[in-house]
Amino acid sequence: MPVDLRCALFYSRKDIFKNKKIFAFITLSIIFATANIIVINGLTDGMIKDLVDNTIESSSGHLNIYPADNERFIEGLGVKEQRLAALEEVEAYSPRLSASGVLSNKELSASVAILALDPDKERRTTKLLDKITKGMALNSNDNNAILVSYRLAEDLKLDVGDEAELAFENGKSKVYNVKGIIRTGAADFDSSTVIMPLNEANQQLAFDNSASVILIKLSDKELADAYMPVIMQVLGVSNVKTWKEETEYLLSFAEAWQSFSSIISAVGLVAAAISVGIIIYINVIHKTRQIGIMKAIGAKDDFIFTVFLMEAVLFGVIGVSIGDGVGYFAVKYLEAHPFPEPMLGSMAPRFYMYLLYDASLVTMLTVILAAVYPAFIAGRMNIIKAIWGD
User: Fold this and answer.
1) What's the domain range around 214?
2) HEC string for the chain
3) Number of domains the chain is built from
4) What is the pLDDT of residues 72-92, one digit of tens each?
5) Domain boundary, last residue among 195, 225, 246
6) Same domain for 255 and 235
């Protein structure tokens, strides 16, 4: 005979509201667990998005073209730029040239990575030149000016307006004015990088029509995988990487961080599960005689089991619903008031609808599972012992 769910729901609803303190305690545990999952996962997703976006904005395009194996440079830069300009989905591109050198300020010297670029093209492709913390960005005609990464400036005691001698890898050297100090948040870049105009680097290094990498900005970064073979065919290149490949190390870090955040969320879930399980078990023990009377008037084991399981469902529905609201407003508040972060500028959670779905489903299942054992004990209780309160 099927269980009368309406009758079971009536008993359950009456029972959970009898003791307001217990009701508040269990509900608050579930609210905390649900909201905790939403906020922690929202913060994790936001941090990952900020890290990936920062990397793409400063040191990577949606697609990056590299020299073929065993070659140092991409040759025929002018022709490749013309072909890129004709492609519909390509919004911008920026060739970069990499070299090594030594930067000196009085008696202080340091090995540096030289990054040469076209400032106008770079501004259309990335936000690298927006990350000036002091001074001004470069222009294409700044043949006597450089930008210095902030840690390098600290090591060499350089400030905006100072002069420093840059010795190139081919033996040439020249004195440049420090026009600005830049900080991207990428440790390798910030520790030892000098940025200069591409024309000036070509002149000093005696390079022409070459690049170490070409950064490409598409109309949508999600087109990168599909558009990569088009770029390879049209430009006749073989070594092209997408932004996902370039940020693979960040995505690996993200997986580790998500595992850590899952542990934090699990702590809240365990607390909620223990609260529900213990309270319902104590409730069963205290209502032993009432359970015996219910059985005496015809209540079956599965009906008793359903009553106590429904109590957990009701606790879950109320707690999860309120927890979803608390988590949603907490994430939205933190989105509007991001944490200041020296390297990224700010860091904030991101809200996605799946956060609500995941938190609701996981918390609800945990609460129900926690109630199964005490509900089973209630349903299997011996009628004679229950009536006598044994």
Assistant:
1) 61-246
2) CCCCHHHHHHHHHHHHCCCHHHHHHHHHHHHHHHHHHHHHHHHHHHHHHHHHHHHHHHHCCCEEECCCCCCCCEECHHHHHHHHHCCCCEEEEEEEEEEEEEEEECCEEEEEEEEEECHHHHHHHCCHHHCEEEECCCCCCCCCEEEEEHHHHHHCCCCCCCEEEEEECCCCEEEEEEEEEECCCCHHHHHHEEEEEHHHHHHHHCCCCEECEEEEEECCHHHHHHHHHHHHHHHCCCCEEEHHHHCHHHHHHHHHHHHHHHHHHHHHHHHHHHHHHHHHHHHHHHCHHHHHHHHHCCCCHHHHHHHHHHHHHHHHHHHHHHHHHHHHHHHHHHHHCCEEECCCEEECCCCCHHHHHHHHHHHHHHHHHHHHHHHHHHHCCCHHHHHHCC
3) 2
4) 899 888 899 999 999 989 999
5) 246
6) no
